[in-house]
Amino acid sequence: MLSDDEVEEFLGDEVSEEELAEEEASEGFADPLEALAADCQKLETENTELKDRILLTAADMENLRRRTTKDVADARAFSIAGFARDMLAVSDNLRRTIDSVPEDDKGSEDMKNFLEGLEMTEREMLNTLEKHGVKKLVPLDEKFDPNFHQAMFELPNSDIPNNTIVQVVQDGYVIGNRVLRPAMVGVAKGGPKFVAPTSDANDAETDGAES
Q1: Can you tell me the distance from the alpha carbon of 9 to that of 81, in angstroms, rounded to the nearest whole number?
Q2: Which of 103, 184, 188, 210 is positioned for an S-S bond with 157, CB 3.0–4.6 A?
């Protein structure tokens, strides 16, 4: 038979074990399934965060690739800008020479051959520049745009919409999206407000220019 001291000691041990169980339960270790579920939830959260980081990194890399490609293309296009301007000056001189020949002198066979040679040289030069991204502006009948055109004079006309380009003094050119040389133009003044043409009209003008 146990003595009073032994019974008290035994009961004290039982209480300690119960307290330990309660403590373990409070710390979340009483149910292994709950602990496993918590670990799974943590891993899923970390996995989602990693996926988000990977997607963000991939998007940044794609944006960097696009910017780099554009920068390289712009560098290639603009690297010939100075040379292209010089070639345009040569083309202008060829055109002035052709236009300066009197009509009476164009009848001779020698002069015809000479002018044909100049015109062929001019066309070949402009075609070569176009292959490298240099394109001519065709502003006639368009609204004046100071970003692409330089107004040389104004022509009063109440019938033509205001700020319409009615004459091109010197052709303008662009390289890529940058103006290589603005078109020198004359614009109408005193007419009604300019109304931009519809897309169908623009398509018709483009088709006509290409043909």
Answers
A1: 99
A2: 188
Average pLDDT over residues 134-150: 93
CA torsion through residues 124, 129, 132, 134, sign: negative
- What are the residue boundaries of the structural domains of the chain, listed by start? 80-132, 135-210
- Chain segment 158-196, per-residue pLDDT in tens: 888 999 999 999 999 998 788 999 999 999 998 888 777
115 touches 148 (CB < 8 A): no
**135-140: long-range contacts (C-beta < 8 A, 24 or more apart)?**
135/173, 135/174, 135/175, 136/171, 136/172, 136/173, 137/171, 137/172, 137/173, 137/174, 137/183, 138/209, 139/165, 139/168, 139/172, 139/183, 139/185, 140/165, 140/166, 140/167, 140/168
End-to-end, the C-alpha distance of the chain in Å comes to 121
CATH architecture of 135-210: Roll (2.30)
- Cβ pair 7, 15 in contact under 8 A: no
pTM (2 decimals)?
0.56
Closest by Cα among 141, 207, 204 to 168: 141
Is the pLDDT at 15 greater than 60, yes or no? no
Q: Which residue has the tokens 């002069």?
A: 111
> Within 79-191, where are the H helices?
81-100, 109-131
What digits encode the pLDDT tens for the residues 106-128?
888 888 899 999 999 999 999 99
